[in-house]
User: Fold this.
Amino acid sequence: MKLTRRGFFKGLLLATAAALTSCVYAFAIEPGLRLRIQRWAISPKGWTAGKLRLAIVSDIHVGEPYVGLARLERIVAQVNRLEADLVLFLGDYAAGHKFVSKPVKIADAAPILGKAKGRLGTYAILGNHDWWDDRTAQKTGGYPNLYATALEAAGIPVLSNRAIKIGGFWLAGLEDQLALLRKEKGIIGLDDLPATLEHVTDDAPIILMAHEPDIFPKVPHQVALTLSGHTHGGQVRLFGWSPIVPSRFGGRFAYGHIVEDDRNLVVSGGIGCSILPVRFGVPPEITVVDLS
Ligand SMILES: [Fe+2]
Assistant:
């Protein structure tokens, strides 16, 4: 078939329109407007604590125009409609990119997060951006942390290398694995998995919150479920493959429910973005895990 000049320009126009539409979708609609509920039903080996619903919100990365206070209110209202037993925030409240038209302070965002209600409570951990964004904490190398202080003031306990018993299970929170930026030593974690698990004083199953999933290969079998965020599913994900994943394991822990050696990990795709405000194929999500 001979390609006519008119046909060529018509094709070019269609290709340009498709590329523009994809850009608008990836830079505006998917990151800024979409929200889905991603559900996982999991029965881990050794889970003895009955039915338990977790509503998980990760990587909020506050900042207008993508994640402003009004959108945060809508996300929390959606969380409350899920009637979860536990609401868990998995870190990275701080803006993760520079394309912010108006910063949102954690002091303003945290009271909204504090409205999220789980039957057994709402708990949080910190992520790398919550440490990187707090200059004083970077200097001192530890707490107090601006984000933790705001969350605690809003009634949300922040679990930093500790575990607490709730009913028939333990809820553990690992401190961030990429917390401190050091010129001479690179990136240093404040995570301490052995110290976290030392709080566990019986055989009841454990749910572990760890912002980065890279800890997963070291997590022992008593941890029935590890919950992570950080990767945003790669932010761009096509047919289950992401070209860039911030993990030393590449795509192994990029997204979703992963089972290895009878141990379970769920990686939330999160809400916001880092580096660039782009999402394609991994819309912002509230992650729901139904344990039984
Ligand atoms: Fe992160």
User: Anything to note?
Assistant: The radius of gyration is 20 Å. The longest helix spans residues 5-33. Residues 134 and 146 are 6 Å apart (CA to CA).
